[in-house]
Amino acid sequence: MDDFGKPGVYILRDKSEKEDCKKNNCSPEEEKTPSCLQNLKYYIWEYCDTYQKWVHSPVIVTFATTQTPIWKIPFPAVTICSEIKAKKSRFNYTDIYIKKKKGEPITAKEEQEFEYMSLICDTPKELLNTNLTTSDQRAMDFLMEVAPDFDKMMFRVSWRGKRYKNITDLFTPILTSEGLCYTFNIMDRSEIFTDIVTNYRDSFSTFGKVSKYSIQSGYDPDATLDSYPRRSFIASIFGGLRVLLSIPREDIDYACIDAMQGFKVILHHPSEVPRGKLKYFRVPLDHSVTVAVKPNMMTTAKELSDYKPKDRRCYFSSERKLKYFKLYNQQNCLSECLIDFTLETCGCVGFHMQRQNSTPICSASKLKCVIGARAIYLANEVKKKVRKVNAESKDKIKDDSGEKCDCLPACNSLDFEMERSQAIWEWKEFLKIEQEVGEWNSENVSLDELHFARVVIFFKEMQFITSERNELYGQTDFLANCGGLLGLFTGFSFMSALEILYYLTLRFVCNLRKFGKHYWSGSEELLEKNKKLNNGKSN
């Protein structure tokens, strides 16, 4: 970059030029001409810089000028998955695993059920039936059947300080890559998935709870304090969710999931599908975990809807339609592309993936292909982004609007950040006290037969600051900047333009009529000469 971009140089050059003119006895016109050319040159330079910003960086992300209260957004959906995948009274994965490792005979039923369990357990490939490439709904039926009982897993639940007796009304059963999980505050499947998606039984069904919230407009005007999805009003434990979890000691399995015990918890937006392999935290047995949640919200000004998505770098929900999901967001878009890529690569999809009725379900022996397809897909996405960045840096910008998996972020989005702490929980002493005061009846359950854990989730603060996408330079701003630069460097303004227009039109026509075509300029000197000539002729 040369010196023209540095304002300090303008003054130095201007002074040096004037000094040179004084030394060389320049006329006022000669002294003024270089400064005008220099100023015009500086103006053109600054104009080009402003134009580049207007074209290539039309959007700026800033913080909102006012804070948003937490009651304007829903409480995050909370998905809880047990690391115990099967009740040992129904299916003992460890026993079958040891028998197959030792080469001992098992029944055909045990073989089939072992294949089903291997969909969610880390089973070595040599123990699987490689001839079986696809599965069916019986696999999902089995996983639902052997999963831990809901009423035993959810020992006690409190929401906004109120303890609920009918816990089933608070949670929705969903089938994920972790097996059967339960979600608090998720929207109904009719609001998440399109009509072509095949839903398994009651998975993702809220049983009639209708949402009165959208990410674009917030809660409906007629929404009450208890409208769905649920929201909090207090930034403390008393305004959040508190869940006591339990599992029988006899059901603990050390072969299925690398001896990991406890629970996986996923926080996500109520309109999103939880991804158990991506974003979660663990709740170990005999521990209490406290999670303070901070919302991370992005909004986009309506004025940006006139821009192309690639310029503002986001999609409005009405601009991009997905095949499996009703709501566009970046995660849903990536998931949909991964599903299609997995189907193309493996000829089937994972049992937990969204699919059409005719789409085959991959068996346990094909899980390696499913995992490999995911790795290849993510690597390809990274390569595309690198190529795109390199192309932009060389000004070879390609219009990728026709690209199938151009998964830009959503223009309006809501995510949740977490601050987590945990400590050992002396739950036995706690429950003994509750038993003494009659809060808990342990006639049918011995404390030595159970493991407990607790998770508490709440908003950290009463308000949060939203990020906003706005126009950096609108058309009015661009014209104002250009006009300001023109006035700064050349003294030219809108009034100057009107004066030029006046002298070229109205003044010119009036002078023609008044003084004739030979004296159209109206110069006093010419008019005086003309008057003397006329007086001379008359004499």
Automatic annotation (TrEMBL):
GO cellular component assignments: plasma membrane
Residues annotated as transmembrane: 478-504
Gene3D superfamilies: Acid-sensing ion channels like domains (2.60.470.10), YojJ-like (1.10.287.770)
Keywords: Ion channel, Ion transport, Membrane, Sodium, Sodium channel, Sodium transport, Transmembrane, Transmembrane helix, Transport
GO molecular function, one term: ligand-gated sodium channel activity
InterPro entries in the record: ENaC
Domain of life: Eukaryota
One protein family per Pfam: ASC
Signal peptide: none
Family under the similarity heading: Belongs to the amiloride-sensitive sodium channel (TC 1.A.6) family.
The protein's name in its UniProt record: Uncharacterized protein
Native organism taxonomy: Eukaryota, Metazoa, Ecdysozoa, Arthropoda, Hexapoda
